[in-house]
Amino acid sequence: PNPAIREAMQSLCDDPDPRLAAVGLDVLRCRGGAPFAEVATLIAHPDGGVRRSAARVLAMAEQRVAATELLASQAGSELDEGVLATIAQGLLKLDDRRGLVVVRSRLADEAGFPGSLPRRARLALLRLLALCGDGSDLATLLALADRPAEIELLGWYGHADVVPPLLEVLTERCSPALYSTAETRPLAAARALQRITAAMEPRSAPRGVGYRPDAVMPDPTVWAAWWDEHRARFEPGIKHRHGRPFTVEASLDELCADGAAQDVRECAALELSMLSGGVPAPWLGGWSSRLVAELADWTAHFRQFTQPTGKPLHAPGEWPARRLGERHRTVAAG
Fold first, then answer.
1. Residue 210 has what pLDDT?
2. How far is CA 145 from CA 148, 260, 318, in A?
3. CA–CA dist 71, 181 (Å, integer)
4. Which of 63, 115, 142, 241 has the highest CB neighbour count under 10 A?
């Protein structure tokens, strides 16, 4: 890589125009990170966009302890809900339980006072809870999963008790074509059910702009009959993915699958980053050859902790919150 680009972006971080400062931080993050001392001052910048970009850089910092303290300190005074969601995500990526405390607190407020969160911040916080929470978060997720994107997160959550409410959603009218990107609650519910159960045979979706490759037929009669026959397979109180207790390998498969939808890859990468023990996820927007190599390295990182002789980062079916705060120690010792 051209070193002149890094130097130019570092200079840009000090630009009085906050939009340019945020661009500098974003480019440096995609190229492996920015000088820690520089970012440490920008996490409290007056502009929310700069603070958000600085939080994303801190989430991949090698100075884990200092980075988590900076993020946690800013979380205590942050007034921008979108930036707060990014800070919580950064804490979770660094394997710090305080990120989950922030997520639960803000979503509890939203459940009590609906509409108190901006739509994007609400979705970001729900995504974090679905990916990193545990069985105690079931009621919150069911109460707040209303729009299609929120409903689909119930599939990533993976609790068997979300299946009956999802079956109810399937009975609602569903007008868009099966593979259309136009969303309805039933289409999202069907994808959520498929992610939990792997009940339906995948269909060959059309390829091209405007189509979802992971669409699932939202027939309520077929789904209800399947669940009546197979529900005993799904142990209560654990996390499920594709009909089995959730494993890191299941998320890796979704991340690396050929032709996977971009939003699926992004969720899988975020999920894995919070299970990695603080090892940053590959940048999905990078050059394809570089991304393939980085995904291979990341896969190797996880597999070294699935050996019978090693301490695992995650056990099958275990809720991600179970070892939150412990994984970075496992990685350091391994």
1. 56
2. 8, 23, 22
3. 36
4. 241
Residues of the chain falling short of pLDDT 50: 209
Cα separation values, 322 from 128, 138, 238, 276, 307, Å: 15, 15, 11, 14, 20
Q: HSE (CB half, 13 Å, CA atoms) of 128?
A: 29
* pLDDT tens digits, one per residue of 138-150: 999 999 999 999 9
**Neighbour tally for 101: CB within 10 Å:** 14
Which residues are CB-neighbours of 200 under 8 A, at least 6 positions away? 194, 216, 217, 222, 226
Distance separating alpha carbons of residues 154 and 126, to the nearest angstrom:
9
Provide the β-strand partners of residue 244.
241
All residues at 6 or more sequence positions from 67 whose CB lies less than 8 Å from its CB, including other chains: 36, 58, 59, 61, 90, 94
What is the Cα–Cα distance from 122 to 106, expressed in whole angstroms? 9
* pTM score of the predicted model: 0.92
pLDDT digits (tens, 9 = 90+) for 20-71: 999 999 998 888 777 898 899 999 999 999 999 999 999 999 899 999 999 9
Task: Yes or no: say if 56 and 94 are a contact pair by the CB < 8 Å rule.
Answer: no
Integer Cα distance of 92 and 158 in angstroms: 19
* Amino acid at the residue 131: L
- The per-residue pLDDT for 34 is 79
Residue 305 near residue 330, CB atoms below 8 Å: yes
Quickly tell me which residue has 């480019």 as its tokens: 27
Residue 114 Cα distances to 106, 108, 119, 146, angstroms: 11, 10, 11, 11
